[in-house]
Write a structure and sequence with these properties.
Blueprint lengths: L2 H24 L3 E2 L2 E2 L3 H25 L8 H12 L14 H24 L1 H6 L3 H20 L10 H28 L5 H8 L17 H11 L3 H21 L9 E5 L5 H13 L3 E3 L25 H6 L10 H17 L1 H5 L1 E10 L17 H21 L8 E6 L7 H12 L3 H15 L2 E8 L6 E5 L9 E2 L2 E3 L9 E4 L2 E16 L2 E11 L2 E6 L6 H11 L9 E7 L2 H10 L7 H4 L4 E6 L18 E2 L14 H4 L4 E5 L5 E8 L4 E6 L2 E2 L9 H5 L1
Parallel strand pairs: 3-4, 3-5, 5-6, 9-17
Antiparallel strand pairs: 1-2, 7-8, 7-19, 8-12, 10-11, 11-15, 12-13, 13-14, 15-16, 16-18, 19-20, 20-21
Helix pairs in contact: 1-2, 1-6, 2-4, 2-6, 4-7, 6-7, 7-13, 10-11, 13-15, 16-19
Length: about 700
C-alpha cells in the first residue's frame, strides 16, 4: 500500500476515534452493558487525537504553501500552539511529564503512554519537512495502541496487558530503526539532503518569518539573535564566518590531514545565526566543501537524548528533555542492540563513498541561557545496570564502525561559540567581547604557550592544587621524551578546532596519575554540578560525588549518567592549561563565567577531560607544533588497547572539567631531578615570559 493511501486511512480512522471519544464522554461509563474506556484513558486518547489532527493539518498547511504566505503574527501563533503543552507553565499536567502520566495511569501504563506521547511529538518536525512516511508510521502506532485498549474492553478488568503494549512499541522501534538510521546517515554525509540549507540560502533573511519555516520552537531569544545579526555590519559577519571556517581548514593543516580528500562538511548551529551561516556556506564551498545541515534528533528512532546534535531552535522545556533522556530503557535489550548495529552497518555500506569524503562537523554553540533546576524523577525511564552495560557496548561498537567508514585519522572539526540574548541586558556588549575573544592574536598566544610547553617538557609530572575552598590536589604523570630536541608532550593550541585560542594540552600517562579534582560549581553539557569531586587512582576515576541532590545515591547517579555515561570508570584523557585570561576577565566583568560553554571555560584555567584522549582514533597521525617538534603524547594505557581490541580502547565521550583561576593555588612541573618550576600561583602566571597573560587580570 502506498504511503499516501496509508496516511489517508490513518487520518480517517483518527477522526473517527475523535468522534467515538466525544460520544463516550457524553454517555455514562457503562450503558446497556457495554464497557467504555475509563475516564483517564479517554482524556489521554482525546488529547492525542487532537494533536494528531493538528499534525495532519500542519502537514497540509506546509505542503500547500500556506506557511510561506502567513503573516508573522500567524506564524508565531501556530508555532506556540505546537509546543505549548510541554512548556514549563503547562508541564505539571502534560502527558509528556512522566510524574503526571504515572499518577494518572499507574507505573506500567504511565511510562508507556508517556513514551508514546513523546514519540508522537516528533511529528512536528516531520510535518514541516513534508515527510509523510514519518507521520504515517507514528499515526499507525497510535492506532495500534488505541485498538489494543478497545479490544480489551471485553476482558475482566477492561484494560490491555501492559506487556503486550510494550511489545507493540518495541517492534515499532525495532522495525523502523533501519529506515531511521539510513535517513540519519544520509542527512549527515549527503549534501542532497538540503532542507535546512535551502531555507538558509533561499530565504529573505532581512525578515524573521523564515525562522518559523524550520518547524523548531521559536522564542524572543531566536528573534533577538536574528535581529542582532541583521544589524551587524557585513564586515563583522564576515569576520565571524571567516574565523569559523578558517578554524576548520587550519584544523586539517595542524593535524597533518589532507582536506583536499574531503568533499562535505557538517554545519551544526542554533537558529538565529543564518546570516553568518550563509556566509560560512560560501566560504566552505570556496575551499571545495559542500555543507550538510541536519536537524537534531526529535525521535527515539534517531537516537534522541539529552544533548542536541545538529541544528535546533529554542528548547521548550529542559526538564522534558531530561525526563525522556533514557526512554530507550523501556526497550533496550541485546536483540535491539544487534538490530541497531546491523542498521548502521547497512547504512554505512550504502553511503560508504559519501562517508569516505566526509570531513567532520563545524559547530556553532550558543550560551547565556538561565540554568535549569532539573529534577530526577523516579517515574521516568531509567537504564538498569545490564542496560547500562549494553549502552556502553553499543557506543563502543557504533564508534568503531563509524571510524571504519569515516576514518579518525582523516577527519577534523571546529567549534566556536556566541552568546544569546538570554545572557542579559549587556548582550550586545558581551557579543562584541566574544568576537574579540574569538579573534585574539594567535601569534602572541603561540609564542607564550611555547614557553610554557618548553617548561612542561622538562617535567616528569605536574602538580595541581586548589586554593580557598577548592580541595583539588592532583599529580599528573607525563610521557618520557626520548629526544627532547625533536619531541614534545604538549600541543600548542591556537584558534583552529577549538576556538578561541588559549591552551596547551596533553594525553597524560595513567599510571601514577592520582589525587582529587574538585570544582565548587561547573556546567557540563548544560547541566550544573555543585561541589563536584572526582578521585583518581592510576589515572582512572575511582570515586565521585557532588551536592546537587539530597542523597549520595542521587548525586552519584547524576554523575554516572551524565559524566561517566554509564561506564564504571573513565580515564583522564586530557590535561591542559588554559591561557585565555581575556575570556576569564570578560566572564567576571559581566558575571557570566557560569554561563560560558566548555569551549570557552576550558581556556580559563587548567582542565581535565574524563574519557577519550584528544587524539581519539587518530593516534598514529604525525602531529607537530609550529616549532617543528612532534607531539608524542597521543596515547595512554587505555587507548593503546586499540592495537588488540578497539572496543576496549575507546569510551566515545570526552568531558572537560575546568578549575577557574580564582580557585587555583598552584600549577607546578616537577623535573626528573625533583626541581619544582611553578607556572601558576594563586591564580596568576608566574613563569617568566608569561607576563602578558596577567595584563587582563591586572585590568580587572
Amino acid at each position: 500500500m502506498m504511503v499516501e493511501e496509508r496516511f489517508l486511512l490513518a487520518e480517517e480512522r483518527i477522526r473517527e476515534i475523535k468522534d467515538e471519544i466525544n460520544l463516550m464522554s457524553e454517555q455514562s461509563i457503562e450503558s446497556d452493558g457495554k464497557r467504555e474506556l475509563p475516564e483517564a484513558f479517554r482524556q489521554y486518547f482525546g488529547k492525542m487525537t487532537d494533536f494528531l489532527l493538528l499534525m495532519t493539518d500542519t502537514y497540509r498547511y506546509v505542503a500547500e504553501g500556506k506557511l510561506y504566505q502567513a503573516s508573522l503574527d500567524e506564524l508565531k501563533e501556530k508555532n506556540h500552539k505546537l509546543y505549548e503543552d510541554i512548556l514549563p507553565e503547562n508541564y505539571d499536567k502534560s502527558y509528556g511529564n512522566p510524574a503526571y502520566s504515572v499518577s494518572e495511569f499507574g507505573e506500567e501504563y504511565g511510562k508507556l503512554l508517556c513514551f508514546l506521547y513523546a514519540e508522537l511529538r516528533s511529528m512536528i518536525v516531520w510535518a514541516y519537512e513534508k515527510q509523510q512516511d514519518e507521520l504515517t508510521i507514528r499515526m499507525e502506532l497510535f492506532l495500534e495502541i488505541y485498538g489494543a485498549f478497545m479490544c480489551a474492553l471485553e476482558e475482566v478488568d477492561g484494560l490491555p496487558d501492559s506487556e503486550e503494549l510494550k511489545e507493540t512499541m518495541y517492534f515499532f522501534v525495532s522495525d523502523y530503526t533501519r529506515d531511521a538510521f539510513m535517513k540519519k546517515l544520509d542527512a549527515m554525509v549527503n549534501p542532497q539532503s538540503d532542507f535546512a540549507l535551502r531555507l538558509i540560502m533561499d530565504s529573505d533573511l532581512s525578515k524573521p518569518d523564515y525562522l518559523y519555516y524550520f518547524g523548531e520552537y521559536i522564542t524572543e531569544n531566536e528573534l533577538k539573535t536574528w535581529e542582532h545579526l541583521k544589524n551587524l555590519p557585513e564586515e563583522t559577519i564576515a569576520t565571524m564566518a571567516d574565523t569559523y571556517t578558517e578554524g576548520y581548514r587550519i584544523g586539517f593543516e595542524v593535524g597533518n590531514k589532507d582536506i583536499s580528500k574531503k568533499k562535505t562538511v557538517n554545519i551544526r548551529y542554533c537558529l538565529g545565526f543564518e546570516r553568518m551561516m550563509k556566509k560560512a556556506v560560501k566560504n566552505f564551498e570556496a575551499i571545495g566543501l559542500k555543507p550538510t545541515i541536519y536537524r537534531a534528533a526529535a525521535s527515539l528512532l534517531q537516537g534522541k537524548g539529552l544533548n542536541r546534535i545538529g541544528y535546533y531552535g529554542a528548547i521548550p522545556n529542559k526538564q522534558y528533555d531530561f525526563d525522556h533522556k533514557d526512554d530507550q530503557a523501556l526497550f533496550l535489550d541485546k536483540r535491539l542492540m544487534q538490530v541497531r548495529m546491523e542498521a548502521w552497518q547497512e547504512a554505512y555500506e550504502t553511503y560508504k563513498k559519501q562517508a569516505a569524503v566526509f570531513g567532520g562537523p563545524a559547530v556553532v554553540e550558543v550560551f547565556g541561557e538561565e540554568p535549569a533546576e532539573l529534577k530526577e524523577k523516579k517515574e521516568a525511564a531509567h537504564l538498569s545496570e545490564s542496560q547500562q552495560k549494553l549502552a556502553v557496548e553499543y557506543m563502543a561498537a557504533a564508534g568503531e564502525l563509524q571510524n571504519k567508514y569515516i576514518k579518525g585519522e582523516e577527519r577534523s572539526f571546529t567549534i566556536i561559540a556566541f552568546p544569546t540574548p538570554e545572557i542579559g541586558e549587556n548582550y550586545s556588549r558581551i557579543f562584541d567581547e566574544v568576537i574579540k575573544i574569538n579573534t585574539l592574536d594567535y601569534t602572541l598566544y603561540q609564542r607564550i604557550q611555547q614557553n610554557i610547553i618548553d617548561t612542561l617538557d622538562r617535567g616528569r609530572y605536574v602538580v595541581i592544587k586548589g586554593m580557598g575552598q577548592n580541595k583539588t590536589n592532583l599529580k599528573v604523570m607525563l610521557h618520557k621524551l626520548d629526544n627532547p630536541k625533536k619531541q614534545t608532550n604538549f600541543e600548542n593550541c591556537v584558534a583552529d578546532v577549538n576556538i578561541p585560542v588559549g591552551e596547551v594540552f596533553t594525553s597524560p600517562l595513567l599510571t601514577g596519575t592520582e589525587g582529587l579534582l574538585h570544582v565548587s560549581r561547573v556546567y557540563l553539557n548544560e547541566l550544573e554540578y555543585k561541589d563536584l569531586s572526582i578521585q583518581f587512582e592510576d589515572g582512572m576515576v575511582k570515586e565521585y560525588t557532588c551536592r546537587n541532590f539530597g542523597t549520595e545515591e542521587e548525586n552519584r547517579k547524576y554523575i554516572r549518567d551524565n559524566v561517566l555515561f554509564h561506564h564504571d570508570t573513565l580515564p583522564i584523557g586530557e590535561f591542559a592549561i588554559g591561557t585565555n585570561t581575556t575570556a576569564y576577565v570578560v566572564g567576571r566583568k559581566y558575571g557570566i563565567e557560569d554561563k560560558f560553554p566548555i569551549l570557552i571555560a576550558e581556556k580559563t584555567g587548567p582542565h581535565f577531560a574524563v574519557g577519550d584522549t584528544c587524539y581519539s582514533h587518530a593516534e598514529d597521525v604525525k602531529v607537530c607544533n609550529p616549532d617543528g617538534k612532534e607531539i608524542i603524547a597521543k596515547d595512554n594505557e587505555c587507548s593503546l588497547k586499540r592495537k588488540e581490541d578497539a572496543g576496549k580502547a575507546y569510551f566515545n565521550c570526552h568531558t572537560d572539567i575546568t578549575i577557574p583561576y580564582d580557585e587555583l593555588g598552584e600549577v607546578s612541573v616537577v623535573t626528573e631531578d625533583e626541581e619544582v618550576i611553578t607556572i601558576i600561583e594563586e591564580g596568576r602566571f608566574v613563569l617568566t615570559g608569561c607576563e602578558e597573560l596577567n595584563r587582563p587580570l591586572d585590568e580587572m
